[in-house]
Specification:
- The chain has 16 helices and 14 strands.
- It is globular.
- It has helices at residues 38-42, 48-53, 74-92, 101-104, 111-132, 159-178, 201-221, 246-255, 268-273, 278-287, 314-326, 348-375, 377-385, 392-399, 404-414, 424-436; strands at 12-13, 23-24, 32-33, 36-37, 44-47, 96-100, 135-140, 183-186, 192-193, 227-230, 240-241, 262-267, 291-296, 335-337.
- Bound molecules: D-xylose (XLS) and nickel (II) ion (2 copies).
């Protein structure tokens, strides 16, 4: 069989001394850490849209990266993309992938034609999954590219558009179930508004919740046992998106009684767009019992949009893995590289260098996060910092046995109290010691 990446060999672990750019230096899939292989801890996934579809277009220029895979006819291109994607996953030893309906098959002139095309490509993907032993982490519907969704999909001001979106979600769910998907994602790209002058926010949000309820009910009725996720993002493409950040989404889910049906798919670059850290968003999801999956990437401090760069910052990866481990690790979720090579990184091998850089960075993050946990100094410090809530007046507060009168009595008797140092710099240097000390 002819290859789409003939110059790329299977990428193998060669250890940190290797200078081979087409090798892993830190990601050793079968290495066991805390009772689990790195492969199972990290559950890496390929994003179909960036990897197979993104051609390097930007606001000022056309594509720089050829993703036609030697074909001309749109369906032939789609088939070649499918084949190339499995070759790529095989060579990179990535077990999972994620897609939007329109990534795998181009939209037709009618919904019926689009659905037929989807079925045709899904047949091929099903075969390839068996052949290469790959799994679907999650599926989703693209409810943002077509111009019919310019005012939103589930939050559109027009019922026909809502109905069309629902039909698209139904089909995407069917394909996800058929391919054994472990999850289904809602990312509300156009679910928001540009100006309140033309927007009925209350109705839009009620309708969005209805679409989600219908989707959950339908999916369960056709045997979907995976997790549903919402992927928060504050803006882009809309000025304001309803799924702003994890906290906002949790409030939405609770308001509509959907909080037992959804978890979070947290994306690093979306966190930073919301003026949070990746770690913050993971922590908020985790403390609310809603941690699910991750879209790994990074933004650029100097740019205010979703640059979707491959994650290579080891501190970020370490703190992210620290949160993920503390949240119990991935169950049905995984680590999807929602990331793309830069526009100017346009040679076929660049996509391999990109994935290798991200996979190695997260492998390091995993190792370092366990080093932090095993070291115990950080956790010990936090425990100690809150120790006054273990006994005496603190224990009364925690158990709900304090009231305003008792607390005033206590405070009056004390006369004054002193707060303790937070020791941020000391803790940051401990982290460096754990990461780089011998
Ligand atoms: C866009 C989102 C998108 C979702 C899937 O910013 O990250 O790619 O992950 O619809
Ligand atoms: Ni994403
Ligand atoms: Ni994104």
């Amino acid at each position: 069989m002819s290859e789409f990446y003939p110059t790329i060999p299977k990428i193998r672990y060669e250890g940190s001394k290797s200078k081979n750019p087409l090798a892993f230096r830190f990601y050793n899939p079968e290495e066991v850490i805390a009772g689990k292989t790195m492969r199972d801890h990290l559950k890496f996934a390929m994003s179909y849209w960036h990897t197979m579809c993104a051609e390097g277009t930007d606001m000022f220029g056309s594509g720089t990266i050829n993703k036609k895979f030697g074909a001309v006819d749109v369906m032939e291109v789609a088939k070649n993309k499918a084949k190339a994607s499995f070759e790529l996953m095989d060579k990179l030893d990535i077990d999972y992938f994620c897609f939007h309906d329109r990534d795998i098959a181009p939209e037709g002139d009618t919904l019926a034609e689009s659905n037929e095309r989807l079925d045709e490509i899904a047949n091929l993907i099903e075969e390839l999954m068996k052949k290469y032993n790959k799994k679907l982490l999650w599926g989703t519907a693209n409810l943002f590219s077509n111009k019919r969704y310019m005012n939103g999909a589930g939050t559109s001001c027009e019922a026909d558009v809502f109905a069309f979106a629902a039909a698209q979600v139904k089909k995407a769910l069917e394909i996800t179930v058929r391919l054994g998907g472990e999850g289904y994602v809602f990312w509300g790209g156009r679910e928001g508004y540009e100006t309140l002058l033309n927007t009925d926010m209350a109705l839009e949000q009620d309708n969005m919740a209805k679409l989600m309820r219908m989707a959950v009910d339908y999916a369960r009725s056709i045997g979907f046992t995976g997790d549903f996720y919402i992927e928060p993002k504050p803006k882009e493409p809309m000025k304001h998106q309803y799924d702003f950040d994890v906290s906002t989404v949790i409030a939405f889910l609770r308001k509509y009684g959907l909080d037992k049906d959804f978890k979070m798919n947290v994306e690093a670059n979306h966190a930073t767009l919301a003026m949070h850290t990746f770690q913050h968003e993971l922590r908020v999801a985790s403390v609310n019992g809603m941690f699910g999956s991750v879209d790994a990437n990074r933004g650029d401090l100097l740019l205010g949009w979703d640059t979707d760069q491959f994650p290579t910052d080891v501190y970020d990866c370490t703190f992210a893995m620290y949160e993920i481990i503390k949240a119990g690790g991935f169950t049905k979720g995984g680590l999807n590289f929602d990331a793309k090579a830069r526009r100017a990184s346009n040679a076929p091998e660049d996509v391999f260098y990109s994935y290798i850089s991200g996979m190695d960075a997260f492998a390091l993050g995993l190792k370092m996060a366990y080093k932090m946990i095993d070291d115990g100094r950080i956790e010990g410090f936090v425990k100690d910092r809150y120790s006054s809530f273990k006994t005496g007046i603190g224990a009364m507060i925690v158990s709900g046995n304090a009231d305003m009168v008792k607390l005033e009595e206590y405070a009056l008797a004390k006369g004054d109290v002193q707060a303790l140092s937070g020791r941020q710099e000391y803790l940051e240097s401990i982290v460096n010691d754990i990461l780089f000390g011998q």
